[in-house]
Amino acid sequence: MLGAVTNVCSDKTGTLTQSKMVLTRFWMPKKGFYSISGLGFDIKGEVKSESDESTIPSNDIPPYLKQLAYNAALCNMSEIRKDKEGDGYHGIGDPTEVALQVFAYKLDMGKPKLLSTKGGPGWTLISEYPFDSSIKRMSVLCKNSEGEHIGFLKGATERVLERCVGIKTGDSVEYISQEQLNSMVLPQVDELARGGLRVLSLASRSVKVNGKVTAETFAREDIEQDMFFLGLVGIYDPPRVESKDAVIECHQAGITVHMLTGDHIATATAIAREVAILPSDYGLNLPPGKSDPRALVMSAQNFDRLTDAQVDALENLPLVVARCSPDTKVKMIEALHRRKKIAGMTGDGVNDSPSLKEADIGIAMGQAGSDVAKQAADIVLV
């Protein structure tokens, strides 16, 4: 069966890419773009304004940047640990969250320090609302040393902005309309994503409480509303060295390769060009607002909106589908089956398991893959 495969559908993160993520740029309203040095799990790095080339001193972090660091560190379940040998560090947990945690460490505001009552700010984590692939966001409720309860939210930009009522810069907040927020933020998302960066949005709000608060006091919906947008972070996940050669070999064997990813459409397009899933000139040098007439890339929102008959009427199925949910990936496999294609699916995450099971051949990543993905797959790569 494996030798008869006509189409391979692949997740991006951890499959086509190394899953060695590092936060390299961020953007904040009224402040602009910043770059951060330091690769991998290196907890030392300089934060530099791209507008005036000034460096932010690590011993004097401004309030607006502290808010971003609090979110990066606290709305985060990963850990950074020192290697047993040498001076290096390693991350435990989701690679995206590890990249955010390393960013907080570079500002000397890693999670352990923020939670410490000895020399630290003494934050307390009250409750966590874990990442949900159907809504593409997660949140936490925390309490600071002054007793104020703060909700922190992070996730896909469109799913964060829809929960926001304004922007926050340092200690000041400004209410703005959803339309104003979108027009302010979305062009900056495109700027980050065009560089192949994975883009997340961060937001927070003060939560009013009455009496004692426990993990069960608030439902998720109670926390994830009336938020104030803090900023965007851009995380780079370099493609695996072998990915491009593998895709080219598939093409030479007559196998079509599709990328199905939860990332922003511009990020997915940039990485797909790098690994030869898309032509190297796809989407480049187009007039503003114009899309490539070859129509090889589609958002999951548009793909999911199509009926089976409309999908079947497409001359070719898209090579890249961005902002995928697990159901989107299954829909693509089903569309290939209706075209009498033999579909292989590669993936490593829990979210890939439904499509791994649906495909003719489900292939899980052996080293970095989740146990759920391995159990759903027919083949586990060692």
UniProtKB/TrEMBL annotation:
One of its GO terms (molecular function) is nucleotide binding. It holds the Pfam family Cation_ATPase. GO terms for cellular component: plasma membrane. It comes from the Eukaryota. The keyword Transmembrane helix applies. This is Cation-transporting P-type ATPase C-terminal domain-containing protein. The keyword Magnesium applies. Keywords: Magnesium, Membrane, Transmembrane, Transmembrane helix. It comes from Phycomyces blakesleeanus (strain ATCC 8743b / DSM 1359 / FGSC 10004 / NBRC 33097 / NRRL 1555). It is found in: Membrane.
